[in-house]
Inverse folding.
C-alpha cells in the first residue's frame, strides 16, 4: 500500500476520529487506517452528536465524517465542530457524489470530500494533505494556548504616584486592508484630550504604515528601542519616541521588514516594551498586521481591549469568528474583544446588497459592535495621509462622515475605560450611553 512509504521525519502521529453510523464501516476503515504508522484512530462515533462530543473532549487532528446519520447528520456536526473545535479538520465522506453535496460539505466547514465506496489510498493521501493544510491553524491555537491569560491591571485608584492608567488598545484584523491603520491612528488621536497622554505603537512588523500615515520618519523606531529593551528607561523612551505635530507620541515600526529580524526571533520583545512604558500613558494604541504569530499573541495578552476590525463581508465575518474562537480557547474574557465595522455602506431600500448588517454581525459573533464606520470617498483619506494627519483630525468639522464616527468610537472607549468605577455605579448610564452611541454611529 502506498501509504507505507510515507515520509515521517518528525514521527508525527495524526490522531483521527471516525464518525459513521454503520458499525461495520467503522471497523473496516479503522482497521485499514491502522496499517499506516502515522495514523492513530483515537475514537469512533455512531452519530453526529456523539462525534461532536468526542471532538470537544479529545480534539482529534482529523475527523472522517459520514453525511447520512441518525440523530444529527454529518453536515450539522461539521458546522458545530468547525466553530467550536477549530483544531480538528473534517473530511466528509458520502455516497452522494454530486456538486450540491460537495458544496454543502464545504460550506459547513469541511476541508475535503471523499466518495463512497472509499478508495483507501485516496483516503490516506487526503488525510495527510488536509492535516498539512490545517497546520497553520493548529500552530496558532498552540501559540495562544502557551500562557494565555493577561495579567490584570490594577484598578486606576491603586496607581502609584505619577503612574498613568496604561490601557492598551490593540487594533487587529486577520484580514488585510480593512482599515486597521486608519482606525488606530485616528483612535490614538481621538483619545488625546487635555492631560491625557497617548502613545501609538506600530506593531505591524511586516508592513509598518503608521510612519507613512503620520509623515514621521524618526531615527528611533521599534527596531532601535528593541535593541536594549531590557535596559529600557521609560524617561529615555519618552525622549526618543517620535512626537507628531498634534502632540501624539508615536513608536513607528520597522522601515523595512528585514530590519525586524531580531523582533521575529524574540517574540516577547514588543510586549515587553509595552509593559515597560504603559504606565507613562493613559492609553497605548497598538496597530498590528494580519499575522497571528507569537509576537502578536503576546501583545494581545497584554491588551485591555482588542478592537477587531472587519468589513461587512461574509469572509470577514468568517475570519473574525475564527479568531474569536481562538481567543475563547485562550481564555480571553469575551468582553475583552469588541468589534469595529469599517467601510459600511448605507443600506439602499430594495437593493439586494451582499453586505451583512451590524445586528447580524453582533449576534453571529456574540461580541459588542462598538463602532460602525461608513465607507467614504477614499480620496479624502488619501489627502489626510498626504498631509500626515490622522483622518480624525483632517477636518475641523467633527460632523463629517467617518470623522464623526471615529470621535464616537474614541469617546465611547474613553468613557468606558477612564470612568471612575464609582461614577459608573452611581449614574448607571454606561449601558444607555453604549446603546445610544451604537445607534448614533451611522447617523449623519
Ligand atoms: N471607511 C473607509 N472608507 C473608505 N476607505 C477606507 C476606509 N477605511 C480605510 N479605507 C482605505 O482602505 C485602505 C486600507 O486601509 P488601512 O491601511 O487603514 O488598512 P489596514 O487594515 O491597516 O491594512 P493593512 O492590512 O495593509 O495594514 C486604505 O486605502 C484606506 O484609505
Ligand atoms: Mg495597516
Amino acid at each position: 500500500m502506498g501509504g507505507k512509504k510515507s515520509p515521517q521525519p518528525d514521527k508525527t502521529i495524526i490522531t483521527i476520529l471516525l464518525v459513521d453510523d454503520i458499525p461495520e464501516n467503522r471497523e473496516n476503515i479503522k482497521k485499514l487506517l491502522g496499517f499506516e504508522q502515522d495514523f492513530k484512530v483515537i475514537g469512533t462515533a455512531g452519530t453526529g452528536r456523539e462525534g461532536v462530543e468526542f471532538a470537544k473532549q479529545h480534539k482529534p487532528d482529523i475527523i472522517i465524517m459520514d453525511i447520512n446519520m441518525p440523530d444529527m447528520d454529518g453536515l450539522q456536526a461539521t458546522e458545530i465542530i468547525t466553530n467550536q473545535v477549530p483544531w480538528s479538520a473534517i473530511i466528509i465522506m458520502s455516497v452522494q457524489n454530486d456538486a450540491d453535496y460537495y458544496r454543502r460539505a464545504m460550506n459547513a466547514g469541511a476541508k475535503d470530500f471523499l466518495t463512497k465506496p472509499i478508495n483507501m489510498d485516496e483516503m490516506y493521501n487526503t488525510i495527510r494533505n488536509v492535516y498539512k493544510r490545517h497546520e497553520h491553524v493548529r500552530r496558532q491555537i498552540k501559540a495562544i494556548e502557551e500562557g494565555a491569560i493577561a495579567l490584570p491591571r490594577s484598578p486606576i485608584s491603586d496607581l502609584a504616584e505619577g503612574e498613568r492608567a496604561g490601557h492598551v488598545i490593540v487594533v487587529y484584523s486577520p484580514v488585510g486592508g480593512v482599515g486597521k491603520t486608519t482606525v488606530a491612528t485616528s483612535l490614538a488621536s481621538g483619545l488625546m484630550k487635555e492631560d491625557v497622554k497617548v502613545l501609538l505603537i506600530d506593531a505591524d512588523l511586516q508592513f509598518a504604515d503608521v510612519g507613512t500615515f503620520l509623515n514621521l520618519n524618526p531615527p528611533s523606531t521599534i527596531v532601535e528601542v528593541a535593541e536594549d529593551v531590557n535596559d529600557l528607561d521609560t524617561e529615555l523612551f519618552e525622549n526618543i519616541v517620535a512626537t507628531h505635530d498634534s502632540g501624539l507620541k508615536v513608536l513607528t515600526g520597522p522601515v523595512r521588514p528585514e530590519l525586524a529580524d531580531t523582533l521575529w526571533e524574540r517574540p516577547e520583545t514588543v510586549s515587553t516594551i509595552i509593559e515597560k512604558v504603559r504606565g507613562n500613558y493613559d492609553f497605548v494604541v497598538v496597530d498590528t498586521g494580519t499575522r497571528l504569530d507569537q509576537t502578536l499573541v503576546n501583545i494581545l495578552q497584554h491588551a485591555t481591549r482588542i478592537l477587531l476590525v472587519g468589513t461587512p463581508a461574509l469572509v470577514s465575518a468568517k475570519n473574525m469568528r475564527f479568531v474569536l474562537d481562538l481567543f475563547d480557547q485562550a481564555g480571553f474574557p469575551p468582553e475583552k474583544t469588541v468589534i469595529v465595522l469599517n467601510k459600511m455602506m448605507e443600506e439602499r431600500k430594495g437593493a439586494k446588497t451582499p453586505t451583512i448588517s451590524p445586528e447580524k454581525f453582533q449576534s453571529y459573533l456574540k461580541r459588542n459592535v462598538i463602532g460602525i464606520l461608513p465607507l467614504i470617498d477614499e480620496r479624502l483619506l488619501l489627502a489626510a495621509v498626504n498631509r500626515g494627519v490622522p483622518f480624525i483630525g483632517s477636518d475641523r468639522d467633527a460632523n463629517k462622515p467617518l470623522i464623526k464616527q471615529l470621535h464616537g468610537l474614541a469617546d465611547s472607549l474613553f468613557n468606558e475605560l477612564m470612568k471612575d468605577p464609582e461614577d459608573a455605579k452611581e449614574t448607571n448610564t454606561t449601558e444607555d450611553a453604549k446603546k445610544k452611541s451604537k445607534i448614533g454611529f451611522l447617523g449623519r
About this structure: The mean pLDDT is 86. Residues 173, 176-182, 204, 207, 209, 290, 342-343, 373, 375-376, 378, 381, 402 surround adenosine-5'-triphosphate (ligand 1) (CB under 6 Å).
